[in-house]
Amino acid sequence: MRAVIAIVSALFAGAAGADDARAPDDAPAIESRHERTPYKLSAGGYRFDARSPGFDLNLRRTFEWGNAWLGNYHDPTFGSQTRAGADANWRPFAGVDLAIQPSLQIASRGFAGASVSVEYGVPWFVSAGLGRTNLRPYWNLNFDPNDAVAAAVGYRGRDGHTMYLQLIRDDRLGTGQQHLHAVLRLPLGRDRLTIDVLRKQGAAEGEFVRAWGIAIGYDAARFFIRIARDPRVNFSADDVTRLVVGTRF
């Protein structure tokens, strides 16, 4: 936690606006990066079917070692939460297609969390990961279970075509909550189209839920837009439609 705070503080002290990292709505760590510039600013709107909307703002910077970010989320029901974090991408062995990807995150209301994933292989790859939090109140912007194990298998071509299956499942709280993602990324010239189909199941608000969700994103060199529909978001009683727009600079 202190390391994350130090990173974020150093970024702000170094230059106004020179701060950033892996935003919660980015592709999973197993995806190759689509970064052409070091900074990324994104704004998200959340339309809940049965309550007032929510909004978030995130600023991220990419470094050679990984990312650091700062953001804030607010809706009238949950309230506000400020968060900061960092992730890294280490390749410890020269000539071996092995990547280790740790991350740390802190937030107001006393929240802290961490994760680590390991990926192996090119162009076909497999990955496994583990996430843990201190179970303090937290609005989860990526919607996947946080205290969970993850596994993925997929293909990442040199031309930018990527496809993978990723399973993320609670292994701590006994809820049976899990997300299965089927993701396809297609290069469109210098741009990119992402389609993420979600199958979710698990205990939510006293019942066992099974539902489908979908997210579609379009990335250009400087701008991007993403829209997602997630029923029973974060395994709550709410269905949500999320629209995120942003810029890289």
What does this structure look like?
With 249 residues, the protein is mostly beta strands. The protein has one domain: monomeric porin ompg (Porin), CATH 2.40.160. The protein is 5% helix and 57% strand. The protein has one helix and 14 strands. The protein has a 14-stranded antiparallel β-barrel with strand order 1-2-3-4-5-6-7-8-9-10-11-12-13-14. Residues 1-34 have low confidence and may be disordered.
Supply the key terms:
249 residues, mainly beta, Porin, 14-stranded antiparallel β-barrel, 1 helix, 5% helix, disordered N terminus
Name the poorly predicted regions: 1-34
- Strand numbers in spatial order across the main sheet: 1-2-3-4-5-6-7-8-9-10-11-12-13-14
Beta-strand segment tally: 14
Rg, alpha carbons: 17 Å
> Tell me, what's the shape?
globular
Q: State the secondary-structure class.
A: mainly beta
Output the number of helix runs. Answer: 1
Please outline the major beta sheet: 14 strands, antiparallel, barrel
So, the CATH homologous superfamily? monomeric porin ompg
What's the overall average pLDDT, rounded?
Answer: 88
According to CATH, what is the class?
Mainly Beta
Helix content: under 10%
Terminal Cα span: 28 Å
